[in-house]
Amino acid sequence: MTDIAAAEQIDAESVLACAASMAYLFPDPFFRAISEEARYRGIALLAVDKIERIPGLGLQALLDGSLVQIGNAGLVKRLEARGVEIFSDISGSWKREGKEIVWVIAGGLVVGAIGVIGALFLSAPKKTPEINSMFRSFINLLSKQKNTL
Fold this sequence. Notes:
The chain is an alpha+beta fold and 149 residues long.
């Protein structure tokens, strides 16, 4: 996981907490990268109830009693979620950098986006904090160099 964007009046940690609270329950590398990032940042998870996979689109669950979904652009479209347009510049930039975007939706409104790169590497078994740190530094360096070219 490399980037987080949040809607106005919502902090990035809340966006990550929502996504990670659902993601940690699923073993797939993509979701594991999100939950590992929350753990790395020391972000507490929320109480999860009635979680379900939406095949090919993402996940949905009740988090502290509120319905929240996380998933791809197909999920945003299927739910006709509002507010995605405020993320158009950043999501376009992330896509050009090769990042996959996980949208976080609450109450039919897109409240945040998470840019994920290297999900397979970040979730590899037997990794060490030093390797993760080196990988994160490498990705950040690549992003900065790309922006200056």
